[in-house]
Design a protein that fits this description.
mainly alpha, 12 helices, globular, binds flavin-adenine dinucleotide
């Protein structure tokens, strides 16, 4: 049985599974794959070496692949660099993995954020203004894939993240708002597992990488809820991107590479206004239904606090590359929440919605990661089910 396993409307969303797979394959995935390769989207500003506020560091990384490698200096956009007086010492260029192309560039300063606001996001725990400890990571050189990070350290992070979820508030899980945080986190967790399965180290001796469909089945497919939550999270983030279309269309994508920057802008326009996407799935998620009723505002504040805690826990991820992608994707989710739950372009404090440059980078890279996961599940799911599934049929 190779027919579609998931039918009907994605729970709490406005499009069906078949449509999501189709628009992802025909529009979203091809566009996003191009967009994230352009300079504006491939450099992510991040503080990777923060102390974990909750537990002593007990990173459990087996592979060197855990380490983050950053962009080669000559690849770095000129406008991202400090204008003067910042000659790098050779010490600054020491790579964690000893590869010359993997140098850490610490020459970034606030100029990078030319035209972009440093505005607080009430959903996240970021402290973007502390530039001295920030580095830029070339995301293209640091793919999210198997790293060997596992055991009690990884488990403790996931446990803490799920403890912050809505069920603490409402064990019955009846109302939509109270389920949403859980579904977003679970969807992200599924996506991370899918990326591990899609790029797995099959043979350490020969350094052979490939797909691990048994892992895909064991961690994701055998739990239909995890697949549903992946689709939900994808549509939720997609909705936030389309809702912020006007803002994103006019954003400043300048990195000092006129041709590449223009292409970035054009591709973003295409993504935001694609006719096929707009007709097939005009409103992937209806945020207007949320936080209604008397307890709505208080509920949203509680959810905001919980999400901020989840964001803080990311500093405790004991593997550098997992921490990079964990921080990026949680920032991306926080940005989606900020966009969706600001009224008429105004944030909660009444100010017009403003996004940080890093938030836009995180949002689009998150959408791309989710799009890759949905594609992989759609394409490889049936084979994995056939090979490893005991029960074949609808969820
Ligand atoms: P885990 O994935 O650790 O799951 C723990 C428990 O959570 C499961 O037993 C189950 O009860 C529950 N659970 C699992 N999936 C879901 C879901 N979708 N929805 C709801 N509940 C679920 N490893 C890498 O190799 N590469 C990475 O890039 C990477 N990034 C990570 C980023 C973060 C933020 C974290 C916390 C971990 C990351 N890891 C990464 C580790 C990876 O996620 C797993 O923790 C690890 O592979 C061990 O897997 P596991 O089988 O023990 O189950």
């Amino acid at each position: 049985q190779d027919g579609p396993k998931y039918h009907g409307i994605v729970e709490d969303c406005c499009c069906d599974y078949e449509t999501v797979d189709r628009i992802n394959e025909e529009v979203l995935n091809p566009l996003l794959q191009q967009i994230v390769k352009y300079p504006f989207f491939r450099y992510f500003k991040v503080k990777l070496w923060c102390d974990c506020p909750f537990w002593p560091d007990d990173g459990m990384c087996r592979l060197r692949d855990c380490s983050v490698c950053e962009c080669p200096e000559n690849e770095f956009p000129e406008t991202f660099r400090k204008p003067s007086g910042s000659v790098l010492s050779s010490d600054d260029l020491v790579c964690q993995e000893g590869k010359p192309e993997a140098t850490v560039d610490r020459t970034i300063d606030a100029k990078t954020f030319k035209g972009w606001m440093e505005v607080d996001n009430p959903w996240t725990n970021d402290d973007e203004t502390d530039n001295a400890e920030m580095t830029y990571v070339n995301l293209q050189l640091n793919p999210e894939r198997y790293t060997g990070y596992s055991g009690p350290s990884a488990r403790r992070i996931w446990d803490a993240v799920y403890l912050e979820n809505c069920q603490k508030l409402d064990p019955s899980g009846e109302c939509q708002e109270r389920r949403i945080l859980y579904k977003l986190i679970s969807g992200l967790h599924s996506s991370i597992s899918v990326h591990i399965a899609a790029e797995y180290l099959l043979d350490e001796k020969t350094n052979t990488w490939g797909q691990n469909l048994s892992l895909l089945y064991d961690r994701v497919l055998r739990y239909p809820d995890r697949v549903r939550n992946l689709y939900f999270t994808f549509l939720f983030v997609l909705r936030s991107v389309t809702k912020a279309a006007d803002y994103l269309e006019q954003a400043d994508y300048d990195t000092g590479n006129p041709v590449e920057d223009l292409n970035t802008q054009l591709l973003m326009k295409k993504l935001l206004h694609d006719h096929k996407l707009q007709t097939a799935c005009p409103k992937p998620f209806d945020e207007a239904k949320m936080w209604k009723g008397q307890s709505g505002p208080e509920l949203m504040k509680q959810t905001q606090r919980q999400f901020r805690n989840i964001s803080a826990v990311m500093d405790c991820v004991g593997c550098e590359k997992c921490r990079l992608w964990g921080k990026l994707q949680i920032l991306g989710l926080g940005t989606a929440l900020k966009i969706l739950f600001s009224e008429n372009g105004q944030d909660q404090s009444g100010l017009r919605l403003q996004l940080q440059r890093n938030e836009v980078i995180a949002l689009i890279n998150l959408l791309n990661r989710l799009s890759e996961s949905v594609k992989f599940v759609h394409e490889m799911g049936p084979s994995a089910e056939r090979m490893f599934g005991k029960i074949i049929g609808g969820p």
